[in-house]
Structures are given as C-alpha cells and as structure tokens.
Amino acid sequence: MSDRVFSMSGLEVMFSPRSIAVVGASKNPKKIGYELVSNILTGGYEGKLYPVNPEGADVMGLKSYTSVRQIPGEVDLAVIAVPAAYVPDVLMECGEKGIKAALIISSGFREVGNLDLEERLVQTARKYGMRILGPNIFGLYYAPSKMNATFGLSRVFPGRIAFVTQSGALGIAMMGWTNLYRIGVSAVVSMGNKADIEEADVLDFFSEDRNTGAVLMYIEGAKDGRRLLDSMRRSSLKKPVIVLKSGRTGAGASAASSHTGSLAGSDAVYDAAFRQCGALRASDLAQAFDWAKLMTLQPPPLNDNCLIITNGGGVGVMAADACEESGVPIRQLPEDLQLEFKRLMPVFGNSKNPVDLTGQAYEESYAKSVELALKDPRIGSVIVLYCQTAITDPVSIAKAIADGCEAHGCEKTVVTSFIGGTQCNEAMQKLDERGMPSYPIPERAVSALAAYYRWQRYRLKKGQPSPTTSSQAASQVSP
C-alpha cells in the first residue's frame, strides 16, 4: 500500500519474537492449530509460547488461554488459525493487547472473493500499528530465532537462503525438498494474499539480514509492481535476488489469477524489468536452488577468466560449450601456467583450457591443480569436473579437492560436478557440506556460475565493489 506508515520494526518483531500466541491452538493432531504449536516446540523456539483456544484446553503440556487478553505479560507475535469469520475480532483483540505482528494462517478471504472481510483486517492493522502476513499462508520459518511457525515440516535444514513464496503448498514441499538435498535455508516465508506485507517488505528485510546470503522468490503476480522492482533494485546491489516467476503463458496467468487472485501482467514486461533491476530469473525450481546454493556457499568470481579442470575430455567440452552459451568467460591459459599444469598430468593430457588431467588423475593431481588455479591471480573462477572411473574413489577425490581449496584459502568461485553413480552422489554431499557446491552434470554447475557472473556484472555496472574482495580485484570482471 502506498500510504503505509508502518515501520520496519514490525517485521523485526515478526521474525524474532520474544513471545508467540497461537490463536486456534488445538490438542487434536489432525488440526493445523496442533501442528503450529508442535512445530514451534520441535523447532527449538526459546521464547514464551501461549496456546489460545475457546475451551482453554492445555495443548502439548502448555497452559492455554481463552483469549489473548488473558495472557499475562507482553506478546510480540500472534499466529492466527481460526475460521475466516472470526479473524477480524481476533485481530482486534491482538491490537488491544499491543501485539505488533500477526501471521494469519486462515483462508477464505480475497482468494475466494471476500474482499471486504480482508479489508477489515487491513483497517484493524492500521489502527493498531500492526503488521500482518497473509491471510491464506502456511506460516513463517526463520532459522536465527529457531522459529518454525508453520504447519509444514517440523525440521528444516538451516542455511543462508531465504525462500519467499506466494504458493503455500509449494513452500511446504520445498521445505522437504531442501531437507532431502541438504540445501540450507535461513527463512521460508509464505506470502498468501499480501493484504499488508508484500514481497517488497520482506525483500527489504532480507537485504539487511546478515543471516541471509541470497533471496529466492516464487512470484505469480505483484500487487505493487513498481514498489517490488524498486526493492529488487536496492537489494540486488547487496546480495543475489533470484526470481521464479510463473504465469509465463496464458494458461499459467489464468491459473495464477484463480489461485491467489494475482494480476499476473505481461511476462515479457516482467522479464525485462527483472533484468534492469539486477534480479536473476530462473526457469525452474531446481535451477533457482542451484544458483542460490552456489551464491551462499562461495564468493563471487574474481575476474573474467574461468578455468575448467577435468579428468574427461568429453565433459570438459560439454562444460566449455555451456560456458560460451551462457556468458562464462573461457580463455586459453598463458604458457607459463600451461607448463605448471603439464607437470600434473601424463604426456597425453591437455594443459589448455579445459585442463584435461586424463582418466589417470588421482587425488594428488586434483588437489594440486585446484591449488594452482586458486593461487594464480589471472584465474577468477574454477569449474572442477570428475567422471567416475574404475581406478579412483569419488569420495577421496572430493576430499582432495576440498582439502586443496582449504589449504590455499578460497577467495574465488569454485564449483564442481561429479558425473557417475551412487558414490558420486555421496561425494557431492561431502563437497556441499564443506562449502564446495557440487552438481550431477556440468551444465548445472555452469548455469549457477553464469548467474553469479551476471549478478557480479550488474553490481559492478552500478559502481558496487565485490562484497568479499577488494574493489581493484572485482573491477577485473567486465561490467
């Protein structure tokens, strides 16, 4: 809303509350009100938790109250999960109690045509200086405050990716998906109908959040497009903003409108606007998380020279093709550096770029090659490829690569791809755990690195130095 006068403090309270009231808490395991209380407790929340229900029945051993008015002491955040018709009165009680933020889980508002009922929520929030997220959301997870106020998964793998989603079901599914692939998230935010808090508000918060390294947003349509783009423009100068925008086609736009009441708008207009604002548009969820994983685990590229190291010529060629197609700069290595690499390979190896160590490459060859690439200032980023062979152990190779990076101290982007079977999958997990993002095919590794280059070039074009390197070094990446 253009006339919103609420301060950012409401969002700070919402993400890090000292006390939470769950209105609609239930002792029935089949009810959302039960899951909310259970997840908050299971997640390790350390503040005070007050269940509220009409019967005053205790929930999971916690004393309950029939109204928020009865709760002793202050309450920072209300989580409301009651039928839509009761929400306005509950919200008014929250305002009278002095609660400054509310998550409205309840559905049955604008998404089904009840605009007046939703507007009552907005007016109440304005009256009491309260911020509301929702309605029609599955909740909010924030790792730093150990708060899982959702009816999604009880356990979430913590990390530095903030996931903001307009789709509740997708958000819940992604909590499980990130757990499966051990992709750490700092936050999961369900936007719902955006009666008050919009994506721009949340994005502004995460742009200043030191616990978040990149923001990934699933958007169907914007309520205030100009405001969202302004926020993206500011935020992209500080950290990567990755956007997955659905409703690209006529069928998708129609589905988005019926799903959340979003006005999807022209996809071509969105696409151009995202580019101008520095936001990185991904084509699907896997790609979006691929990018975010790299950008939260590794520093940005140091200069416009990417080196490919491989034990197989074929995957090296595939990676080189992908680099040229996506804008990752690949150049032939200087003679002196080629001579250094020749010492690490058989006579039939290739010391150009890609550097082909051949199928006879063992742990030592990989470790020394990575160290050589990292210590040479002419190399700005490194792609390390490994094809599973009968004479090497993928997990041992992965350890050698990670050891080589740690021995030198990694100030430039290193991304890996292990191509093979279950042992390669285990090796990739080990690399991810040590902050070395790994992917099952070269193209995915290159795609993530290309997105990182695009973000770095946008920042440099706007006169921003690299967030992790000196201005002089960062200037070697062409804007």
TrEMBL record:
Keywords: ATP-binding, Ligase, Nucleotide-binding. It comes from Methanosuratincola subterraneus. InterPro entries: Acyl-CoA_Synth/Transferase, CoA-bd, Ligase_CoA_dom, NAD(P)-bd_dom_sf, Succ_CoA_lig_flav_dom, Succinyl-CoA_synth-like. GO terms for molecular function: acetate-CoA ligase (ADP-forming) activity; ATP binding. Residues 14-109 form the CoA-binding domain. The keyword Plastid does not apply. The keyword Iron-sulfur does not apply. The lineage of its organism: Archaea, Thermoproteota, Methanosuratincolia, Candidatus Methanomethylicales, Candidatus Methanomethylicaceae. PANTHER family: 3-HYDROXYPROPIONATE--COA LIGASE [ADP-FORMING], ACETATE--COA LIGASE [ADP-FORMING]. Pfam families: CoA_binding_2 (PF13380), Ligase_CoA_2 (PF19045), Succ_CoA_lig (PF13607). This is Acetyl-CoA synthetase (ADP-forming) alpha chain.
